[in-house]
Structure formats: structure tokens, C-alpha cells
Amino acid sequence: MSHRKTLIRDFLARFFRSHELDDGEDIFALGFVNSLLAMQLVTFVEKEFGITIEDDDLDLDNFRSINAIDALIDRKTEAPANG
After folding, report:
1. Are 41 and 66 in contact (CB under 8 A)?
2. Under 8 Å between Cβ of 73 and 52
3. Domain boundaries defined on the chain
4. pTM score, whole prediction
5. pLDDT for the residue numbered 80
6. What is the mean predicted confidence (pLDDT) over 6-26?
7. Of these four, 14, 32, 50, 79, which has the most CB atoms within 10 Å of its CB?
8. Is the predicted pLDDT of residue 69 greater than 90, yes or no?
9. C-alpha count within 13 angstroms, C-beta hemisphere, residue 52
10. Under 8 Å CB-to-CB from 15, ≥6 apart: which residues?
11. Nearest to 60 by CA among 76, 47, 41, 74
């Protein structure tokens, strides 16, 4: 498991105490996520990984699972293409 996924899992574990999350599991479908947790998750991702979540990034699919969050961070931290 990547260090980044471990950090994401540790953050979410505070809110999912009775459930061991799989990397691909839909956190919204589990019913634990409310609007406050969603905003805390966005803030955590921005601060922990040094990225800015733009309005276009605020799509549930980007935050639906540990894998999705990791992929979003990967896209946001990739070096821009030369050209």
C-alpha cells in the first residue's frame, strides 16, 4: 500500500471506526459521509498533499474511494507536460 493511501485511510478511519475500508470501496454508498465530512476531506487533501482542489475537482467521483482520492492527488501533482 502506498504511503499516500495510508494517510488517506488513516484520516478516513477516524470517521469509519467500525468499518475497515477497502481502497476501492465507495465511501458515499456506505452512508457515513455528510457535507461536513466531505469538506473536511477536501481540506485534508489540500493541506496534507500541498494541492489546491479547484471547483472542477469537486466531483463526487474524485472522492468516492481511497483509490479515487489517490488518483486525484496523482493528477494534481503531476509535472505539467512540456510543450
Report:
1. no
2. no
3. 3-77
4. 0.90
5. 64
6. 91
7. 32
8. yes
9. 2
10. 32, 33, 37
11. 41
Query: pLDDT at position 18, please?
Result: 82
| Grid cell for residue 49 | 498533499
pLDDT of residue 79: 61
In contact, 57 and 77? CB cutoff 8 Å: no
Hey, what amino acid is at 35? S
- Helix, strand, or coil here: 2? coil
Q: Computed from CA positions of residues 23, 70, 59, 17, in that sequence, does the dihedral angle turn out positive or negative?
A: positive
**CA-to-CA distance for 74 and 32, rounded, in angstroms?**
25
DSSP 11-71: HHHTT-TT----TT--TTTTT---HHHHHHHHHHHHHHHT----GGG--HHHHSSHHHHHH
Contact between 3 and 46 under an 8 Å Cβ cutoff? The reply is: no
What is the total residue count of the chain? 83
